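Subject: design request, 273 residues
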């Protein structure tokens, strides 16, 4: 079992012992139907078309940047930035030689671009991990051209649910995972932050991820590790923790397991002159 704790580790991938776990996590999520659907929806909401310049903030291993590059075509350009040098290295290694995509290490709160450099900007599940998400949003607005669009997708971990029968144990696990994120409720604040940054025509769309397999939910949400942390912190007794996991495994085998999370996609326009 991987010992990396994804809720806290993504805020400093380069400082982790096992960066492979984070690359595998991003690849896993990108393979799931729910994630593919909201990503495709985000490209549509950005109204990507031939010749546009696009910035992907928190690009990870580069999948979204590469897909957006195919939409803007040979006359467009896509830049991807990430705080992790190792993620950028992986993204560059996965990029075809003829792709109009450039990757660079950068802090979302201090982007290395001139004002009004991009027609579109996208940030996906990055703001939940960084200090100062409002500053990052202001920076993305700064590098947007007048009339340009900014889109953010992020989670509201206050909506994370599991259907364990022991309600006390379930709430302890849900809360411990939720509290591990720097900005656990960022999803519900995105529209407000967009408006405060001066964006117009702000539209918000909620979506719900539903997992019905315990083992997949464990890979996505570190359920076993969260239970282990709850035991180590004295919040769950070992026997109670084991019983809780066994119950969810049994529910999964019978088709009754459920794990859900609400996230928000928000898009806004920088005012035209």
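Subject: RE: design request

Done. Sequence follows.
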């Amino acid at each position: 079992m991987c010992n990396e704790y994804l809720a806290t580790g993504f805020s400093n991938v380069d400082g982790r012992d096992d960066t492979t776990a984070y690359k595998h996590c991003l690849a896993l999520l990108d393979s799931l139907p729910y994630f593919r659907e909201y990503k495709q929806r985000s490209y549509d909401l950005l109204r990507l078309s031939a010749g546009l310049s696009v910035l992907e903030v928190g690009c990870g291993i580069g999948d979204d940047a590469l897909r957006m590059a195919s939409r803007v075509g040979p006359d467009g350009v896509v830049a991807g930035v990430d705080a992790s040098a190792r993620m950028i290295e992986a993204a560059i290694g996965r990029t075809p030689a003829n792709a109009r995509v450039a990757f660079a290490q950068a802090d979302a709160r201090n982007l290395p671009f001139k004002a009004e450099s991009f027609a579109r900007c996208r940030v996906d599940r990055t703001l939940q991990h960084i200090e100062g998400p409002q500053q990052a949003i202001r920076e993305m607005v700064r590098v947007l051209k007048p009339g340009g669009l900014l889109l953010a997708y992020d989670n509201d971990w206050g909506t994370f649910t599991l259907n364990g029968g022991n309600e006390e144990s379930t709430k302890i696990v849900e809360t411990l995972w939720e509290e591990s994120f720097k900005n656990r409720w960022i999803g519900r604040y995105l529209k407000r932050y967009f408006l405060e940054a001066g964006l117009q025509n702000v539209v918000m769309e909620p979506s719900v991820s539903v997992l019905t397999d315990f083992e997949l939910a464990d890979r996505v949400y570190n359920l076993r590790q969260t239970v282990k942390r709850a035991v180590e912190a004295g919040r769950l007794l070992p026997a109670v923790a084991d019983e809780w996991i066994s119950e969810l495994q049994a529910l999964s085998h019978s088709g009754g397991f459920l794990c859900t999370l609400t996230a928000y996609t928000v898009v806004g326009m920088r005012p035209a002159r």
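The CA atoms of residues 48 and 123 lie 15 Å apart.
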